[in-house]
Specification:
eight-stranded parallel β-sheet; binds manganese (II) ion; globular; 13 helices; binds 6-deoxy-beta-L-fructofuranose; alpha/beta; two-stranded antiparallel sheet
Length: 387
Amino acid sequence: MADLSRLNELDEFSIELPSWAFGNAGTRFKVFGSPGVPRDPFEKISDAAEVNRLTGLAPRVSLHIPWDKVDDWSALRAHAKSEGVRIGAINSNLFQDDEYRLGSLCHPEKKVRDKAIQHHAECIDIMRVTGSNDLKLWLPDGTNYPGQDSIRDRQDRLADSLARIYALLDEDQRLLLEYKLFEPAFYHMDIPDWGTSFVHCVALGERAVVVLDTGHHAPGTNIEFIVAMLLRAGRLGAFDFNSRFYADDDLMVGSADPFQLFRILHEIVQQEAHRPSSGVNFMLDQCHNIEPKVEGQLRSVLNVEEALAKALIVDHEALREAQQTGDVLAANGILMDAYRTDMRPALADRRERRGLPRDPVETYRRSGYFDRVAEQRVGGRQASWGA
Ligand code: LRH
Ligand code: MN
């Protein structure tokens, strides 16, 4: 029988939802619209709040600038509060301006780098008004052909640009630096892997930390190894959870490889990093191209909760014993026992004790929320990835 005594550690665990997951998204081939999609950040936050109401696990919403620009940030902050959530990380956008064709923070021309740095100054102002502490920077910079630019010179420009951004932060603000193996650049990215992000973070200072997006690695990468290393170095700042079969598919976390998600959270639990004191911001970064978005986020949050619950029932004492005595198969067996344990009944009981629906998906489907917003949200322009 599994030892459920550590499940109460889920009480202090939380997941941050991306505002852009509630807007229309797609691929370069097609972006599909669907009824009830939010038309502005207020409606995106309302949808995120619905997920929090049903799970009690998603009290923050990350915003993307300029996609989520509003005239009155205090009004948006108040709206979030009235819906029982708050604004989380502020994401900058260095991938949509024409000037960034050859890069942004790494661009050969200083005036283009200045523009990109000024954009972060604007994001930091928004953080001050919205009460956000995390500035999240994903760098799309890179080249498509060998020789197109000097890899070394770009790193020097990048280090200088990041230092200028870091200097703008307030004492209670962090810089979250996200890496990605490829796309939109296809020969080299200027921050392609955890090591490059880590090196820049160490050069910047204590409040610069690494963002690990689970879709940003080469196939076959042992992501939990990277998690263990960044935690050991005290530089794991956040996750962008999603899942993929091939590239940066941004599918529902745990849908393509639930065992990998469990292994990642096993590393997290072993180093107590699921606790808020670790400073790790557990975020989703997904887009729901063909499936309903609110339900997609709901199931994603539940997938993370279930994987963490499995990691919390691992018999760590027996595992350590087997590891110390070189009992390879027993050690692997102990971990597989936890992974193979169906935690859904225990999680349903736990929700019921906390006044939450036993089955949030079933409750959501019966609530008519989808039809209600589809009816209300007519006219105007549906929010869409990239706009
Ligand atoms: C880049 C990325 C980044 C966000 C974007 C929405 O692929 O993962 O985190 O800016 O998706
Ligand atoms: Mn991401």
